[in-house]
Amino acid sequence: MYKELNATLRTIMTPGPVEVDPRVLRAMCTPILGQFDPAFTTLMNETMEMIRRVFQTENQWAFPIDGTSRAGIEAVLASLIEPGDLVFVPIYGRFGHLLVEIAQRYGAKVATIETEWGSVFEPQVVIDEIKRVKPKIVAMVHGETSTGCMQPLKEIGAACRAQDVLFVVDAVATLGGTEVKVDEWKIDAAIGGAQKCLSVPSGMAPITFNARVEKILLQRKKIERGLADPATYDAEQDRLIRTNYFDLSQLMDYWSPVRLNHHTEATSMLYALREGLRLVLEEGLEERFARHKLHEAALTAGIKAMGLNLYGDSAAKLPVVTAISIPDGIDGEAVRAMLLNDFEIEIASSFGPLKGKIWRIGSMGYSCRQKNILHVLSALEAVLYRHHAKISLGDAVQAALDVYHKKN
Asked: What topology is assigned to 284-407 in CATH?
């Protein structure tokens, strides 16, 4: 017989998933409602309004895609890209390559530029390339968790709008942990992640898009419904949105008073997302961003006091992910295993050219609190000492406490 589920309680300090706020877990135990029950559609409407506020936008369209963050990215790109469209992706880590792969699968021609992992682009470099290649869409990652870096977007968004180019942003790692100003940065479509700074289980991806995107979606919907000019209809068949589940033109009807029966809503996940968003707004956006910066400062102070080196350009550091260079002669995976097995702490390795070269510690959402920062610093020091690393003993936690006590 299978035993009752009894998952081990971990301290999760990865760049996602993170620890889920207990209030979110309680919300998930709320009784199920029918998806067209007025009580439930009221919750849907409240969730949309909260998504707008967290994205800092006045967009009409702001709702979650059922699925992981990648589902949200795919829904936006699949619904915008027509075969042969030129999509420009500046790549500075693993998830830029993901944008390329998704765009290509939906028939786009993709242009890229790359910079060394651990750095970001000077905005003018991206802007110059936009002017040169003249894409329909610029797709870019805001916070690259694979490298712990964050790309400035304001100037790039302004340039896209001036060139009449759509600007699509992967804000999966940053939404709810640092500023994401959709309207001010002239972002046309943005995708967030539930399982990172919002401290909700993975399974929903909040998105928002503006009227520029809506115009394209409505035109493609006309073709889908046979309402386009009959003389051009056959030639326009290739313009059909090539997905049903991720078709934003249908999901707009689902999330509007039309209430198109597109799919059965993931009821308990909506409860979770609504509560996660409510907690963000209850704390206050500025207060929440300041909290993430405080714990980042304590963590980085402790890492440096231990004698370890941070990886990447410090000026481009992502506030909610700290990348650490693994000391020479140290088996990074053995350290991670000991942290997990002896201290119940999970931190992350990395991908591609950084695999085996850095650790990544996430300080996101509910995981981003003093207890966890002090715990991970003391445990990492103990494990590194056990592995004969040349570190400064006893200084890491004291350095972090100095940050906290100075704040107080």
From this structure: Aspartate Aminotransferase, domain 1 (3.90.1150)
